[in-house]
Design a protein that fits this description.
This protein is mostly helical. Helix content is about 80%, strand content about 0%.
Length: about 425
């Protein structure tokens, strides 16, 4: 049994790399299932038209996001109070793997069953991701949060690229029959195997932190306590509010990127795979470059730069009339999306004390999911109502612009000071390890 980590004892390099490598593992799910392959197949085959299929898919993405927003704070609070973060993390990861396997065996036109299976799997994935993120404050060295977070994101994009290449080798050669969409659905088995295999280091080597305070279980009272605790993390609250908005745009991009390329430009399965690889290559490059920038100029300016870039990419994609223009937009999306998520995560890590990080990253997950149904639903419904995917994509500008305006209110220096004060206070409490 893994022993709890001692507060103040530096994490080992093995722990940091095993944590970072989990991004290499989980990227397969978002890349192949949520963004490029399974989502495109679902939209193309589960309804009478591709536009109607996109609207239907938006309910699966949006519904699971609402569920995550409702559940994540309770899971994070229980993990902190009972020192069971690692146990929850392992179980949710294994549930995600099992759910991904199930998706491979649901053929068209069983849309409702597929949406339920996807929704439950996506909820487990997002909850595991919230707990995974909460390990960051206890792993990173002071002043290196951006670098560690960015390295993990870069590994994630490498994993996404390699898994897409494996998918191309699996179904692009015609080895599997096209009947019933088997070649598409079989990629879910690849994702499940990939996720399980490469998450092993994190499942084994990440240590548990001691409980922040006595108690176990999930309760409304604990959630109220967490909400009151936010008053000591004022800048974290401002970040959560800004992310509540701009992350909606990212969720929609990830959920509809493959659908847009297929519906507007007629991308084939092979082209969708290469499109995903193209985005991931530049996302990995962007994550590494911006990781150093994050530690140099700070998380807030880094996120702000990415929001300007994402808004520009949205305009390019919306106005594109030729394929090469969409590929240019994809480059910009890749370069900016990874650093946006990485810098947001590292900024939150700077704002919270490690022993309260599962609870706080549970709320961070809420900020990413509470209204994240808005982006996919707005894109999906506008597409369905107008019959135009371009109109749907144009709506993403609202999320990036408004999110940037809200981010202007965040004071990064004050947030770091608040976190240091809380670490000192918690360390001085009776019974602190």
């Amino acid at each position: 049994m893994t022993q709890p980590a001692l507060v103040g004892v530096p994490a080992s390099s093995r722990e940091r790399w095993s944590w970072a490598f989990y991004d290499f593992a989980n990227s397969a799910f978002t890349t192949l299932v949520v963004t490029f392959i399974y989502s495109a197949w679902f939209a193309a085959t589960m309804a009478e038209t591709k536009a109607a299929g996109a609207a239907l898919w938006s309910w699966g993405v949006g519904g699971s996001a609402v569920a995550v927003a409702l559940i994540a704070p309770f899971v994070g609070s229980a993990a902190d109070r009972s020192a069971t973060r690692r146990r929850w993390f392992r179980r949710l990861t294994l549930f995600t793997v099992a759910g991904t396997v199930l998706l491979a065996f649901i053929p068209a036109p069983r849309a409702l069953l597929a949406l339920v299976a996807f929704g439950a799997t996506n909820v487990a994935y997002e909850l595991a991701l919230a707990l995974y993120n909460s390990f960051l404050p206890g792993l990173s060295r002071e002043g290196h949060e951006g670098r560690l977070s960015a390295n993990a994101w870069a590994l994630g994009y490498v994993g996404g690229i390699l898994c897409l290449l494996a998918g191309l080798g699996l179904i692009g050669t015609g080895w599997l029959p096209e009947r019933g969409g088997l070649s598409y659905r079989a990629t879910n088995l690849l994702v499940a195997a990939w996720y399980l295999l490469f998450s092993v280091p994190a499942l084994i080597w990440l240590r548990e932190l001691p409980p922040a305070a006595p108690g176990t279980g999930l309760s409304i009272a604990r959630l109220r306590t967490a909400a009151r605790r936010l008053t000591r993390y004022r800048q974290a609250v401002r970040l959560l509010i800004a992310r509540l908005v701009y992350n909606d745009g990212l969720v929609a991009i990830f959920g509809f990127g493959g659908i847009y390329a297929d519906a507007v430009f007629g991308f084939s399965l092979t082209e969708l795979l290469w499109f995903g690889i193209w985005i991931n290559v530049f996302a990995g490059i962007g994550a590494v470059l911006f990781g150093h920038l994050d530690d140099w100029i700070g998380g807030k300016p880094t996120v702000m730069i990415t929001l300007v870039g994402l808004a520009t990419a949205t305009i390019v994609a919306m106005a594109a009339t030729r394929r090469w223009q969409l590929w240019v937009a994809a480059v910009l999306i890749g370069v900016m999306a990874g650093p946006n998520q990485s810098a947001s995560r590292s900024l939150m890590a700077r704002f919270v004390a490690p022993v309260e990080s599962a609870e706080m990253f549970g709320l961070y997950a809420v900020s990413g999911k509470m209204t994240s149904f808005a982006g996919p639903l707005l894109v999906g419904q506008l597409t369905g109502w107008t019959g135009s995917h371009r109109v749907g994509v144009a709506s993403l500008l609202v999320f990036f612009v408004l999110g940037a305006l809200l981010l202007l209110r965040v004071d990064e220096r004050e947030g770091v000071r608040d976190a240091a004060r809380e670490r000192a206070r918690l360390a001085a409490l009776p019974g602190a390890t």
